[in-house]
Amino acid sequence: MVALMIQAYIDNPLYSCWPFWVLELSPNAQVTDVEKAAREITAKISFGIAGADEYATPTGIQKRDEFLIREAKSALQDAKKRLLAEFWYIDPNTELGPQDQESMSVEQWQEALGVKFW
Amino acid sequence: MVTVLALVVAFTLVIFILLIAKRALPIWMVFAFLCGLAWQISPLIIVVIFILASPVLLPSIYARYFALQGEVKKAYFFSSIAYVANYRDVQAAALACGVQATLANSSDLEQTKNHLSWLKQRCYTHSKQLESGEMAMVVIIETLLEIIADSRTKNNIEPQNEGKFTHHRLALLAGIKKDAIPAKVSVLAVKMALAYPLSIGDWNLIVKTAEQWDTNAENPIAKYLLECYRYRIANNKSTPVSVVRRLRQKVKAIEALYNLPTYLFERNTASSNTSQENNESSTSYQQYLWQHELGNIQLNRDELIELTNKKNSITQINRWQQRASELGLTDGNRISSMLNTSIDAYLSLHHSTNDASSEANYEDNELRHKTLLFSSQSIDNKLSDKRSFNRIDLFLEWWRIWSMLNEFEKDDSNYCAAFSTVADMVDSLLIDIWNNRSQPYLLWLICHSCGPVAEHCGHEELAERCRDLAHRAYH
After folding, report:
1. Are B473 and B444 within 8 A, CB to CB?
2. How many domains does chain A have?
3. What is the pLDDT of residue A95?
4. B313: DSSP letter
5. Option in B256, B328, B335 nearest A109 (CB)
6. Which of its termini does chain A have fewer beta carbons within 10 Å around, N or C?
């Protein structure tokens, strides 16, 4: 269960908003919303509903369990951790890839500019 | 008939004299001659004579044609007599044309090396004062020869490293005097220098490169890039694609910019938009940090600091302090400190990687120090022996030292230690050039390159001498 806590969540401040991802909430969520979300997701996991044990992150879909949900809820109920989570928050479904998929290598740029060597 | 013959003989004599004196043929003289002939004989003959004389009358067109065909010697020759088109520096423009012809026909490594060596020899046979354009061309030719030599030993050309190497070499010419650089040279240099920063999408580097080569001569590529970045995109007056479309007809060589990723422009719109310090801007900065995290864009440490500073600007801090009080946190100073600590922790993740690589470079730095010391002593010996330096050798001696010096990391203490090794040699070289060599452009370049470094590393006397000589060279 502990293995589902990704190391980056602990080491890298950029991932500080992970509790919001795990509970599928935004920074506008109230205290009651946090408790309700934790309760519902835990119930879905215990009932074995498909997809309940997965959540979206900017790095892709990750797995969650009851331990992680409890940790996320605890973090969002701590004022300081909540503030940091909101400070670093990003919507996990944000489109982060380059908008133009046609990136060019040095060689291609050299050819386009007419200065390609052999 | 006699009149016609006299006119032809007189005109041929004038062309001959002007060619020897390396002066441009005035266009009014050409038209006067043609009108005089047309008065005497049939206009058809005039057209034939014009076509036959066109290589002398319009050599720049022939130079461009042969450059595209990859005919190095012909391109060089015709460019070297194009006194009107290349009035700033004919020799440099001819070398640029020659290099363009070499690149157009560079499939055979050995042949390319021979062409470049031939062009380098043209510099040695040319005896006039060394100017900025020619120095830039010598650097370009040397860089290409080094890449060829490197590829022959390693047998493994990596275009990314080659482009980066070329970019860094040309960046070392930042102190060059721009007024004497012909358009052909600045356009070629900016194209060669831009391939690497364009491939990594680093707009700060792109702009820095464009500014360096935005010379007095018309450089449409540099001007276009600067226009894009500074005015159109920063002020959000038109989209990047429409800017590229409009200029696409004008500058064919930068057609590739049509495919430039639009997110690059949006990043700069966000970072220059200081009037909208709200949630939306904060999210934009966050997106760029995540794009860097995922490797979709490359941000250096300074850019990361800039973005995190925008996240943590005064307006944002007020907003977070208000939010903290809503969450029940009352100590405003501690909130600010907590957020700063978080940002520092994030930045230190990137700085720790740099520390590891600089440790790994320790042995390399030792070797560079020794090489630098040996090269510096060699030049000192040559100067004290009063040996005659060819102007190109003089420049190359300094250039090699300068290139070696800039292999050290700029913020590394090794950099100043390395500069201290060569400071006395630079001082002697400057005095020698001032007293004996009459090379004001070279003097300018050395003063403007080494002067700031001397000041930074605490060599006040050398910094003062650089300022003084640079001023006196042109006053």
Report:
1. yes
2. 1
3. 73
4. S
5. B256
6. N
